[in-house]
Amino acid sequence: MAATTDWRRLHGNAFEGVRVLVTGGAGFIGSHLVEALTTLGAQVVVLDNLSTGNRDNVALFKPAEFVRGSILHLDVVRDAVAGCQYVFHEAAMASVPLSVERPREFYDTNVTGTLNVLDAAAAAKVKRLVFAASSSAYGNSEVLPKTESMPPLPLSPYASSKVAGEGLMRAWANCYGLDTASLRYFNIFGPRQTADSAYAAVIAAFAKAMLSGNRPTIFGDGEQSRDFTYVHNAVHANLLAARHEQPVNGDVFNVACGQRVSLNELAAVMRSALNRPDLTPVYQNERAGDVRHSLADLTRVRESLGYEPIVPYEAGLLATMDWYATILS
Question: Domain containing 94 — which CATH number?
């Protein structure tokens, strides 16, 4: 079962009756946003081309409108955003190793597609657009924790496409009267994250392997670390950013738990939870574009948006494993 969150307690009536657009709303993070927003009484429009999303992810939440279409088609985006007060832009191609293989596709979707969403939102006089940015912007800087004032050092086409999106957010806020915010997600995980891909995120990949009785694969020595962040924390940050009373002006915010966990530690916790001490990792060569360490400084997002993690890493991990156990059994 997923960890439960009382969205009404956290956000009250801020979204009651408000029309919003969630691009990529049938995907992993997007569907959790749709769930929270419908719970809060918003009129949610979902735009998704279903290339990686799944209509079933939002079937239970009954969005006001589901539009099957791509952010690469400006007319489709313009129709979807009409009458919306907020846009949550989650649609993207999102795999570092896949971006190394197919960089042009990543730029088409993550840069040109984002430009379309900005153009359409500005024309529709949307109050604020919240963009799913990425902690991959920090690259391999040895400085920890990562602060938003550090210069971007993207190491992959995916990371550089997300940094380009941040630049577009700030430019549109400055030039076109569309307030924007960029949220740099740190290793978001949780229910509905696909495990059926060679490019699956690490927790999803570990869960699929271990629940099938197989040893998980680690690329590198396993001492690389991540700031694993349960998906409800990302949703909470999006909602805080959208309803923030003052202009955000394209600013960038880390979204994480502020806790550093190595992949070896992650595998050990998951083995213990499954009572399978035999499922020790298999180690392979490091992958191009992967960063070594990732840990967020949360000072800016706390002080500016009032964000605090609402689901700890450990609780989120156990809830996520329960969910995978249900769907993979």
Answer: 3.40.50.720
51 pLDDT exceeds 80?
yes
Given a contact cutoff of 8 angstroms between Cβ atoms, the answer to whether 23 and 87 are in contact is yes
Whether 316 is in a domain gets the answer no
200 pLDDT more than 80: no
Domain count of the fold of the chain: 1
Nearest to 289 by CA among 186, 172, 140: 140
Reported as type and span, the H/E element at residue 181 is strand 179-185
Q: Which residue has the tokens 């024309």?
A: 123
Residue 177 within any structural domain of the chain: yes
Mean pLDDT, all residues of the chain: 94
Instruction: Please say if the pLDDT value at position 1 is more than 50.
Output: no
* Host domain of residue 306: 14-190+229-258+295-311
Of the residues 107, 138, 158, 230, which is catalytic? 158
Q: What's the CA gap between 113 and 162, in Å, rounded?
A: 12
Q: Which residues contact 255 (CB under 8 A, 6 or more apart)?
A: 183, 184, 185, 186, 188, 229, 233, 234, 237, 296, 301, 307
Judge contact between 179 and 127, C-beta under 8 A.
Answer: yes
> Rounded mean pLDDT of 12-37?
97
pLDDT tens string 133-143: 999 999 988 89
- The mean pLDDT of 286-312, rounded to a whole number, is 92
107 catalytically annotated: no
Give the predicted TM-score (pTM) of the model: 0.95
**What's the CA gap between 17 and 73, in Å, rounded?**
28
Q: Is 219 part of a structural domain of the chain?
A: no
Question: How many Å apart are CA 294 and CA 300, to the nearest integer?
Answer: 17
Q: Are 195 and 207 in contact (CB under 8 A)?
A: yes
Q: Which is more confidently placed, 315 or 142?
A: 315
**pLDDT on residue 290:** 75
Query: Within a domain: residue 61?
Result: yes
Q: Is 194 exposed, middle or buried (0-12, 13-18, 19+ CB in 10 A)?
A: middle
Nearest by Cα to 271 from 315, 210, 208, 321: 210
